[in-house]
């Protein structure tokens, strides 16, 4: 039986623990907060981040990172993106260099604008790194409803091996070698989802949301290709698949944040009422800086960054987007 350690017991880490159990793995689940590990052990339920879903009692919760690292022949990193560096640095001295690390976080690092694979290369050097990304709301995956995602690793055999380890009937994984494309799709869709939510919350209509999703995909594609991704990855599960889910599904934290902003609620009030992470806020800042440096036009991401990180007025930002000059659709 393969031993898998999931690092991060938020909604997604918990769902991945369930998926790995269904795939027949021995699973350890590390929680940053000892209280979460305790509730997982006592109730076989993640009452903090994924309430109401009974978990496989064979999942082994722990708050001891060294123990979790030693218990896994595969590590799945499911912390929020902004915490991945610190956790990976703590893992460095306690894991073997041969242990593959699968990045399940979706985001760019604030400040450096680095992809999670670049963060990992610095914090856990020399490790085979893979990326798991796709349209996967945690609650549905935890319940065992069917879902599919991209499992990308530069090494084809490594990707295929991880698909075998983590994939199952209800959690269908598709191997890819496009580590960059899978990460950019997964990270930037959160930013576009905030914009899609704003469109819905402001009552701008279904046409506007479809336009926003499509033009959002265009700007994700421009950045991804500029960073060396394959264009076709962006029409796959980690691109169009996740973008569609997150820009329409009411289980999305990013989309519902946008809806609330569009309805006129203040960002601080929405965030104060949430325990869970809304990745698009951080990634909006990071991706806007990255796009500026790379000379890639990303007006939707820049608009979201202006609203959520720089207090720009919503209606002015929407007006500025609508006033942009007409251009060829292929640009
Ligand atoms: N929830 C979902 O449906 C999916 C989430 N993801 C991605 O997975 C990542 C984790 O998201 P969720 O599990 O949903 O988060 P969550 O909001 O459910 O939980 C947040 C997690 O962060 C942990 N945390 C808080 N402070 C920390 C710190 N200083 N160091 C380390 N960990 C800390 C909390 O203990 C908790 O485990 C995100 O990048 C998200 O985009 C990816 C696919 C699906
Ligand atoms: O990544 C996700 C689904 O694939 C979860 O999206 P949210 O973080 O917006 O809830």
Automatic annotation (TrEMBL):
Main location, first listed in the record: cytoplasm
Residues that hold NAD(+) according to the record: 8-13, 138, 253
Record-listed substrate binding positions: 106, 253-254
Positions of the Glycerol-3-phosphate dehydrogenase NAD-dependent N-terminal domain: 4-157
Which of UniProt's keywords are assigned here?
Cytoplasm, Lipid biosynthesis, Lipid metabolism, NAD, NADP, Nucleotide-binding, Oxidoreductase, Phospholipid biosynthesis, Phospholipid metabolism
The Gene Ontology biological process annotation of the record reads: carbohydrate metabolic process; glycerol-3-phosphate biosynthetic process; glycerol-3-phosphate catabolic process; glycerophospholipid metabolic process; phospholipid biosynthetic process
Q: Reaction(s) catalyzed by this protein? A: sn-glycerol 3-phosphate + NADP(+) = dihydroxyacetone phosphate + NADPH + H(+); sn-glycerol 3-phosphate + NAD(+) = dihydroxyacetone phosphate + NADH + H(+)
Q: Which residues make up the binding site for NADPH?
A: 12, 32, 49, 106, 138, 253, 277, 279
- Under Enzyme Commission nomenclature, its number is 1.1.1.94
Per the record, the domain of life is Bacteria
Q: What class of enzyme is it?
A: oxidoreductase
For the ligand (sn-glycerol 3-phosphate), the binding residues are: 106, 134, 136, 189, 242, 252-254
- Which residues belong to any copy of the Glycerol-3-phosphate dehydrogenase NAD-dependent C-terminal domain? 178-318
CC annotations in GO: cytosol
InterPro entries according to UniProt: 6-PGluconate_DH-like_C_sf, 6PGD_dom2, G3P_DH_NAD-dep, G3P_DH_NAD-dep_C, G3P_DH_NAD-dep_N, NAD(P)-bd_dom_sf
Entry function: Catalyzes the reduction of the glycolytic intermediate dihydroxyacetone phosphate (DHAP) to sn-glycerol 3-phosphate (G3P), the key precursor for phospholipid synthesis.
Q: Which NCBIfam families match?
A: PRK00094.1-2 (NF000940), PRK00094.1-4 (NF000942)
- What family does the Swiss-Prot or TrEMBL record give for this protein? Belongs to the NAD-dependent glycerol-3-phosphate dehydrogenase family.
For this entry, the protein name equals Glycerol-3-phosphate dehydrogenase [NAD(P)+]
> To which species is this protein native?
Limimonas halophila
């Amino acid at each position: 039986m393969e031993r898998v350690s999931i690092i991060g017991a938020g909604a997604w880490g918990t769902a991945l623990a369930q998926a790995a159990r269904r795939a027949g793995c021995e699973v350890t689940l590390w929680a940053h907060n000892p209280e979460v590990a305790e509730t997982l052990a006592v109730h076989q339920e993640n009452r903090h981040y994924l309430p109401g879903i009974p978990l496989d009692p064979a999942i082994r919760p722990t708050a001891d990172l060294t123990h979790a690292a030693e218990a896994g022949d595969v590590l799945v990193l499911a912390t929020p993106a902004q915490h991945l560096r610190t956790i990976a640095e703590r893992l460095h001295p306690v894991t073997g260099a041969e242990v593959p690390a699968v990045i399940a976080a979706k985001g760019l690092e604030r400040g450096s604008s680095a992809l999670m694979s670049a963060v990992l290369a610095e914090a856990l050097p020399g490790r085979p790194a893979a990326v798991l990304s796709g349209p996967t709301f945690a609650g549905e995956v935890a319940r065992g409803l069917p879902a599919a995602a991209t499992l990308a690793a530069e090494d084809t055999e490594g990707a295929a091996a991880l698909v075998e380890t983590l994939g199952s009937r209800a959690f269908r994984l598709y191997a890819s070698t496009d580590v960059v494309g899978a990460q950019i799709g997964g990270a930037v869709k959160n930013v576009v989802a905030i914009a899609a939510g704003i469109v819905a919350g402001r009552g701008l209509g279904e046409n506007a949301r479809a336009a926003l999703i499509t033009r959002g995909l265009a700007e994700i594609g421009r950045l991804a290709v500029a960073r060396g991704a394959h264009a076709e990855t962006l029409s796959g599960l980690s691109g169009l698949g996740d973008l569609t889910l997150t820009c329409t599904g009411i289980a999305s934290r990013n989309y519902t944040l946008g809806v609330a902003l569009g309805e006129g609620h203040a960002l601080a009030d929405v965030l104060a009422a949430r325990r869970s992470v809304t990745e698009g806020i951080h990634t909006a800042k990071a991706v806007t800086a990255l796009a500026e440096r790379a000379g890639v036009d990303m007006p939707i991401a820049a608009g979201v960054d202006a609203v959520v990180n720089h207090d720009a007025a919503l209606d002015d930002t929407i007006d500025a987007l609508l006033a942009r000059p007409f251009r060829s659709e292929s640009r």
